[in-house]
């Protein structure tokens, strides 16, 4: 079994104790298979354990199996630093249902003593065949203040260049930074495929992203009662520009908000999106699946 990421911090241990064994029940399977376009298997297993609550000799295989049973047959494992990116690339090599992305998270970039060296590591990993995306990169003005934004922008621009050099999808983390994300993409010239991970904008921002041909990936947040603006954004997004994700173990959809998330809960978000967009569920599943293959290539 591939070893998990570094030993959890005390905060993570405390979270793990609170979350262990609290995965929600499996939802009704989808009529067609879809993918989870953004998950963190390493963090999920470290913080929350394995869906089903029991021990597992191979927690990654268990998570994949549980997801496949409800129609989620492909997963994109997302890197947030050099270590998790390397781990994800190795997981993708071992498990046919998994592809990987590699990157330095925007909140990670300002903390690095040698950003250039870390970016060289990411570029090296980007050359691997089953690494199909560069992300999550971008801008985050919620957790990083003014003092860290120059490093974030430098890192983001470097990731855009890596994505273009390797012809990989660019997976963007954007929190409270919509205008700056578009500005930097316009300045640098976007890669052919851009995915707005956990899309968090309103209808106006969605229109700008759709106009540019970007893909909008919706997480469990679209089901939250306070997310009317997000639902308006989803309603105007063409089906062939929609992806769905967990961002597991976070952002668990209603009615299980607050409990740990995993790829097997994707059907809750897909069904909610079908109702929000007025789409036929079967048609939406087919569109999400096709868009995933277009964005990340064949599994």
TrEMBL record:
Bias kind Basic and acidic residues: ranges: 9-21
Gene3D superfamilies, A to Z: Metal-dependent hydrolases (3.20.20.140)
Domain of life of the source: Bacteria
Binding residue positions for a divalent metal cation 1: 38, 40, 136, 247
Region (Disordered): 1-34
Pfam family, one: TatD_DNase
GO molecular function: DNA nuclease activity; hydrolase activity, acting on ester bonds; metal ion binding
SUPFAM superfamilies: Metallo-dependent hydrolases
UniProt binding sites for a divalent metal cation 2: 173, 197
Record GO cellular component, one term: cytosol
Keyword annotations of the record: Hydrolase, Metal-binding
NCBIfam families, A to Z: YchF/TatD family DNA exonuclease
Protein name: Hydrolase, TatD family
Organism annotation: Micromonospora lupini str. Lupac 08
């Amino acid at each position: 079994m591939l070893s998990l990421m570094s030993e959890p911090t005390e905060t993570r241990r405390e979270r793990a104790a609170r979350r262990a064994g609290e995965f929600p029940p499996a939802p009704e399977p989808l009529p067609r298979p879809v993918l989870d376009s953004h998950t963190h298997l390493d963090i999920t297993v470290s913080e929350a354990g394995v869906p089903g609550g029991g021990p597992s000799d191979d927690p990654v295989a268990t998570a994949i199996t549980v997801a496949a049973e409800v129609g989620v047959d492909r997963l994109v494992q997302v890197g947030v630093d050099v270590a998790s990116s390397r781990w994800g690339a190795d997981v993708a090599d071992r498990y046919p249902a998994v592809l990987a992305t590699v990157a330095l998270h925007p909140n990670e970039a300002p903390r690095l003593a040698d950003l250039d060296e870390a970016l060289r590591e990411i570029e090296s990993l980007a050359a691997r065949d089953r690494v199909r995306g560069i992300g999550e990169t971008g801008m985050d003005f919620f957790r990083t203040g003014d003092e860290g934004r120059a490093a974030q922008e430098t890192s983001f621009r470097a990731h855009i260049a890596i994505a273009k050099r390797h012809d990989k999808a660019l997976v963007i983390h954007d929190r409270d930074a919509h205008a700056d994300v578009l500005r930097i993409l316009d300045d640098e010239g976007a890669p052919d495929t851009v995915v707005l991970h956990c899309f968090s904008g309103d209808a106006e921002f969605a229109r700008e992203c759709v106009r540019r041909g970007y893909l909008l990936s919706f997480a469990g947040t679209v089901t939250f009662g306070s997310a009317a603006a997000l639902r308006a954004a989803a309603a105007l997004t063409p089906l062939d520009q929609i992806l769905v994700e967990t961002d597991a173990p976070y952002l668990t959809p209603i009615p299980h908000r607050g409990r740990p998330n995993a790829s097997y809960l994707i059907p809750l978000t897909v069904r909610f999106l079908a109702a929000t967009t007025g789409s036929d569920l079967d048609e939406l599943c087919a569109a999400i699946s096709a868009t995933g293959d277009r964005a990340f290539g064949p599994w």
